[in-house]
Specification:
The complex is a heterodimer. Chain A has helices at 33-55, 61-68, 71-103, 107-122, 125-133, 135-138, 158-161, 164-189, 193-201, 206-236, 248-259, 262-291, 296-313, 320-329, and strands spanning 141-145, 152-157. By secondary structure, chain A is mainly alpha-helical. Chain A has a two-stranded antiparallel ribbon. Chain A is flat. The N and C termini of chain A lie far apart (61 Å). Chain B has helices at residues 44-51, 83-90, 108-118, 124-137, 153-165, 183-198, 210-216, 234-239, 244-253, and strands at 6-15, 18-28, 33-37, 59-64, 67-68, 71-74, 77-80, 93-96, 171-175, 202-206, 219-224, 227-232. In chain B, the strands form three sheets. In chain B, strands 8-9-10-3-11-12 form a six-stranded mixed sheet, with helices on both faces. A four-stranded antiparallel sheet of chain B has the order 2-1-4-5, with helices on one face. Chain B has a two-stranded antiparallel ribbon with strand order 6-7. In chain B, helix 5 (153-165) packs parallel to helix 6 (183-198). The chains are: A mainly alpha, B alpha/beta. At the A-B interface, helix 9, helix 10, helix 13 and helix 14 of A face helix 2, strand 8, helix 3 and helix 5 of B. Bound molecules: adenosine-5'-triphosphate (ATP) and magnesium ion. Chain A: Residues 1-20 are annotated as: Disordered. Chain A: It is found in: Cell membrane. Chain A: InterPro entries: AA_ABC_transptr_permease_3TM, ArtM/GltK/GlnP/TcyL/YhdX-like, MetI-like, MetI-like_sf. Chain A: It is a multi-pass membrane protein.
C-alpha cells in the first residue's frame, strides 16, 4: 500500500503507517484524568476535615464514647424508633383511606379528604407538634358525647389523655397521613384503568379490586417515596423534643443541658441517626423487589437466571419450566 | 323454544352531549355467536361494555339470561344497582379486552385462579386444578408460571380468555381480541375462540376479522353511527348486504 496523499482526503489516505493487519490494532480506553484530579482534591479536603475533627479537643471523643451507648441515649433511641414506626403505620393506614376518599365519586367525601390534606400539609409540623402538646390550653377537658346535648359517655382532663408521647404521635401521624395520602393517590392513579375494568368484569367488588389488583401494582410507585418519608420521619421525630417527647434528641438535650457538652452529644445523636437511616435502605430494597414482580425491570435478573437455568438443565431437558417458576417467585 | 341469552331493547347511551348509541335492539340466542362489525366510532365497544355495565345505559334495557343488567325496576322507574350487586351479575359474563388487561403482578396461573378463589370462593387447590385445565385448553399448559411480561401478545390474550372462562360464564364478550396482535399471532387466538364456539359458548364478538365472522358467526350485525344498520346470517350481511353503508364498509375492510 502506498502513502501517496490523495487529493480528496478520503479516510483511506490517513496514514495507517507500518502495515499492521486490522485485527491486530489495539484499542486504548479513554483516560479519565479529570476523575483522578477530583479524587485527589476530595481526598485532601476530606482527609483534612476528618483530621481536624479527630484532633479537635472540643469534639471530645472520650465523651462521645461514654454516651454513645448510655442508658439515656438508648431509651431515647427506643422512643424514636417506635415513634417513627407508629407514625408511619398511622400515616400508611390513614393515608390509604384518605387517598381512596379523595378519589371517591362522592363529592362530600372527596372534598373533606382534600381539605384534610390541604390543612396538614400547609402548616409547619413544628406548629402542629406544639399545638397538640398544648391542646389542654384550648380544651381543658376532653369528652365523648352527642353534640348539642348533655349526653356524655366519657370525660377526662386533656393533660391526662394527651401526654407528650400521645401528642407527638398525633402530630407526626396525622401529618404523615396527609403526605402519604398524596403519594398513594398518585400511585393509584398511575395504574391503567383497564386493570380495574378487567377485575370488575370478573365480578370483583371495588374493595377487592383495590386490594388485590390496583394497590399491589401501585406499590411500585408508592414504595420509593414512602421510603423517603420514613427517613424524613425518623429525623423529624427530633422535633418532639420541644414538648419533652423523650425521644433520642430530647434525651440528648437533657444530658447536655446538665453537663454542657453540647458538641460531643450532638455527634452521638448524629451517629445514631446516620446508622438508623442507613439501615432503612435494607427493607426498602426488599419491598421494591417484592412489588417489582412481573415488571419489565424485574424480568431482567430472571431472564439471566433463565439463561443459566436453561444452560444447567440442558442435559436433563424437560424440567426447565418448573425451575423458572421457582426462580421468578424468589 | 328456549329464552334468548341476551336481549337488548332500545339501548341509548350518551357521553356528554354526544349520543353514541341511538336505540340498539339486539337478541342473542343461547349458544349463538354474534359478531359485531362497523366503522371506528360506531359504538361497538360502548354497546359491549353496556352489556356488563362497565358503562351505564341512559335508556332502554339489557337482560342477560332473563336478568336485567345494572338496574332494578320499581314501577316505571329503573333504579341503578349498587356496585356489589352489579359485581354479582358480572360473574356470569366473561369479557376479553383488546389490550388483554392481564394483571402484570401475577403469573398466568395466578391470573386465572384469582377470581375463582376470591369471588367464587373455590378452594385454592380446586382453582389451581381448574386453571391448569383451562391453560391446557388454550394451549399454554407449559406457561403457567410465566408473568404476562414474559408472554407474547397472542399468549397473553389466550391467558385472558382462560381467566374469563375460569368464572364459568354463561356469556363471553370479546372486544376486538386480535386487533392489538401481530398478524402471525391472530390465528392462535381465533383458534381458541373457534373451539369455544364449537363447545356451545354464547359469544358477542366485536371484530374486524370478516373471515372469522363469516366462518364462525351465527349472526353478523353491522353497526354505524350508534344504530344497527343490518343484522342477519353472515352470508347475507357480509356477502349480499342490503344496505349501501354496509357495502361501502365491507369494500374498505376486505
Ligand atoms: N368514555 C368516553 N367518553 C367520551 N366519549 C367516548 C367515551 N368512550 C367512547 N366515546 C366515544 O363514543 C364513540 C363510540 O366509541 P366506541 O369505542 O364505542 O366505538 P367503536 O365502534 O368501538 O370504535 P373502534 O372500532 O375504533 O373501537 C366514539 O365517538 C368515542 O369517541
Ligand atoms: Mg372499540
Amino acid at each position: 500500500m502506498s502513502l501517496v496523499p490523495s487529493v480528496s482526503g478520503t479516510p483511506a489516505a490517513m496514514p495507517t503507517a507500518p502495515d499492521v493487519p486490522h485485527e491486530q490494532l489495539r484499542t486504548v480506553p479513554m483516560r479519565h484524568r479529570g476523575r483522578w484530579a477530583a479524587a485527589a482534591v476530595a481526598l485532601v479536603a476530606g482527609g483534612g476535615t476528618l483530621w481536624s475533627l479527630a484532633k479537635n479537643p472540643n469534639l471530645d471523643w472520650p465523651t462521645v464514647g461514654a454516651y454513645l451507648f448510655h442508658e439515656t441515649v438508648f431509651s431515647g433511641l427506643v422512643t424514636t424508633l417506635w415513634l417513627t414506626a407508629a407514625a408511619m403505620a398511622i400515616g400508611l393506614a390513614g393515608g390509604t383511606v384518605v387517598a381512596v376518599l379523595r378519589l371517591s365519586a362522592n363529592p362530600v367525601l372527596s372534598t373533606l379528604a382534600g381539605l384534610f390534606v390541604w390543612f396538614f400539609r400547609s402548616t409547619p409540623i413544628l406548629v402542629q407538634i406544639i399545638f397538640w402538646g398544648f391542646l389542654g390550653a384550648l380544651y381543658p377537658n376532653l369528652m365523648l358525647g352527642i353534640p348539642f346535648t348533655d349526653i356524655t359517655f366519657y370525660s377526662a382532663s386533656t393533660s391526662a389523655v394527651i401526654t407528650p408521647t400521645v401528642a407527638a404521635l398525633l402530630a407526626l401521624g396525622l401529618n404523615e397521613v396527609a403526605y402519604a395520602a398524596e403519594i398513594i393517590r398518585g400511585g393509584i392513579q398511575s395504574i391503567d384503568p383497564g386493570q380495574a375494568e378487567a377485575a370488575h368484569s370478573l365480578g370483583m367488588k371495588p374493595g377487592l379490586t383495590l386490594r388485590r389488583v390496583v394497590l399491589p401494582q401501585a406499590m411500585r410507585v408508592i414504595v420509593p417515596p414512602m421510603g423517603n418519608e420514613t427517613v424524613t420521619m425518623l429525623k423529624t421525630t427530633a422535633l418532639v423534643s420541644v414538648i419533652a417527647g423523650h425521644d433520642l434528641m430530647s434525651n440528648i438535650q437533657d444530658v447536655y443541658a446538665q453537663n454542657y457538652k453540647v458538641i460531643p452529644l450532638l455527634v452521638v445523636a448524629a451517629l445514631w441517626y446516620l446508622l438508623l437511616v442507613s439501615l432503612l435502605s435494607v427493607p426498602q430494597g426488599w419491598l421494591e423487589r417484592r412489588y417489582g414482580r412481573g415488571s419489565a425491570s424485574a424480568a431482567g435478573p430472571s431472564a439471566l437466571r433463565r439463561l443459566l437455568t436453561v444452560r444447567a438443565a440442558r442435559p436433563g431437558g424437560p424440567r426447565t419450566h418448573t425451575r423458572i417458576r421457582k426462580g421468578n417467585k424468589a | 323454544m328456549t329464552a334468548p341469552m341476551v336481549v337488548a331493547q332500545g339501548v341509548t347511551k350518551r357521553f356528554g352531549s354526544v349520543e353514541v348509541l341511538k336505540g340498539i335492539d339486539l337478541t342473542v340466542a343461547r349458544g349463538e355467536v354474534c359478531c359485531l362489525l362497523g366503522p371506528s366510532g360506531s359504538g361497538k365497544s360502548t354497546f359491549l361494555r353496556c352489556v356488563n355495565h362497565l358503562e351505564r345505559v341512559d335508556g332502554g334495557s339489557i337482560t342477560v339470561d332473563g336478568e336485567r343488567i345494572g338496574y332494578r325496576r320499581r314501577g316505571d322507574l329503573l333504579h341503578e344497582l349498587a356496585e356489589r350487586e352489579i359485581a354479582v351479575q358480572r360473574r356470569d359474563i366473561g369479557m376479553v379486552f383488546q389490550r388483554f388487561n392481564l394483571f402484570p403482578h401475577m403469573t398466568a396461573l395466578e391470573n386465572v385462579t384469582e377470581a375463582p378463589v376470591r369471588v367464587r370462593r373455590l378452594s385454592r387447590a380446586a382453582a389451581r386444578e381448574q386453571a391448569h385445565a383451562l391453560l391446557d385448553r388454550v394451549g399454554l399448559g407449559d406457561r403457567a408460571g410465566h408473568y404476562p411480561a414474559q408472554l407474547s401478545g397472542g399468549q397473553q390474550q389466550r391467558v385472558a380468555i382462560a381467566r374469563a372462562l375460569a368464572m364459568e360464564p354463561k356469556l363471553m364478550l370479546f372486544d376486538e381480541p386480535t386487533s392489538a396482535l401481530d398478524p402471525e399471532l391472530v390465528g392462535e387466538v381465533l383458534d381458541v375462540m373457534r373451539g369455544l364456539a364449537a363447545d356451545g359458548m354464547t359469544m358477542i364478538v366485536v371484530t374486524h376479522e370478516v373471515g372469522f365472522a363469516r366462518e364462525v358467526a351465527d349472526t353478523a350485525v353491522f353497526m354505524d353511527g350508534g344504530v344497527v344498520v343490518e343484522a342477519g346470517a353472515p352470508r347475507d350481511v357480509l356477502d349480499r348486504p342490503g344496505q349501501d353503508r354496509t357495502r361501502s364498509f365491507l369494500a374498505k375492510v376486505l
